[in-house]
From TrEMBL:
Protein name: CopG family transcriptional regulator
Superkingdom in the source lineage: Bacteria
């Protein structure tokens, strides 16, 4: 910690090849989540994504937002 506080190079202490930049929710307005699905759900998502020409994540986001809109859950 002394090196950092003295303004010295501390990059040798970091795995920069595998670094991941994560923005705080207050900055990006998003939060990363991981969800485990049964294989049949992933297969169905992939079929729908291929059918409409988008990625799986776009299908998941769209369906969840549509459902929340139907429930009246979208923030004002």
């Amino acid at each position: 910690m002394d090196k950092f506080e003295n303004g010295e190079d501390v990059l040798d202490y970091f795995d920069v090849d595998n670094a991941e930049l994560i923005y705080p929710e207050s900055v990006s307005g998003t939060r990363r989540v991981n969800v485990d699905f049964p294989l049949w759900v992933v297969d169905a998502l992939d079929r729908e994504a291929k059918r409409i020409g988008v990625g799986r994540q776009a299908v998941i986001k769209t369906w969840i937002v549509q459902h929340l809109d139907e429930m009246g859950e979208r923030p004002a």
